[in-house]
Amino acid sequence: MGWVFGLVSDDPMKRAAALAQLIEVQRRTHEAQQESNELWCLASSLGPEEHYEEPAFRQARQCYGEVRRYSLPDGLSGWPWGGIAAWPGLPYALLYLEWEAKYPEDWTHYAKSWGTKKGLLQQLEKADHHYGTKAKLTDLVVSAVGRPYRCEDRWYARLARAIDSDGLRARLGHAAQSDSPWAQYQASFILWLLTNPGAPASRHTWRMWLATRDTPAPPRSSA
């Protein structure tokens, strides 16, 4: 799946080629799913055990499972028992989140999945990451606070606590002093959470924190 990294390329030609590849993979995935569903219906007249053991259906289901591994967001749907930090799919999980950060319109149009985004951020929060991954996650947190709120962005606050560092706090402090109203509010809130570890990173805490501010927060994004 090396082609997926073209989705975040600064080169429009490389990005267009990666999008074309994604569209083709998604088409094949959809076809494989349809075939599996059709054969499932045909086999439904068999007994409960024979239904799932019917050879044609088993083959179609296996084919669908294999094809969807090479697509987005389908290929990000499972986590290993050992945790996401040791998962071979981790680079693609990070790529998926980076793609939303850099090209949100493309991400929303071609591969939007709020459930996948939420699940990835929850898993990333729980893992013990090495330095390179923490640096990438730091970039994602800083990027998230600098934009209008998008669905499930609230999980970045918990992720920030999991990867807390002097470098992250310095970058959040810079964002809090920027001209962007959302960066000012969101970065300041996460910094407050980092210095108040007993406060839950929740919507209720966010609303209570907002109540202490002199001016209202800017409106949420429609995404």
Description of the molecule:
With 223 residues, the chain is mainly alpha-helical. The chain is elongated. The chain starts with 11 loop residues before the first helix and ends in a 13-residue tail after the last helix. The mean pLDDT is 89.
Notable characteristics:
223 residues, mainly alpha
Characterize the largest beta sheet: strand count, sense, and whether it forms a barrel.
Answer: none
Mean of all residue-level pLDDT scores: 89
Tell me the helix content. 55-70%
Uncertain parts: none
Structure class? mainly alpha
Question: How many H/I helical runs?
Answer: 11
- The figure for the number of domains is 2
The general outline is elongated
* Ends distance: 27 Å
Beta content: under 5%
Summarize this entry quickly.
It is built from eleven helices and no strands. With 223 residues, the chain is mainly alpha-helical. The mean pLDDT is 89.
Task: Chart the SSEs and their pairings.
Layout: H1 12-43, H2 48-53, H3 55-68, H4 90-102, H5 104-111, H6 114-126, H7 131-145, H8 155-162, H9 166-176, H10 181-195, H11 203-210
Helix pairs in contact: 1-3, 4-5, 4-7, 6-8, 7-8, 9-10
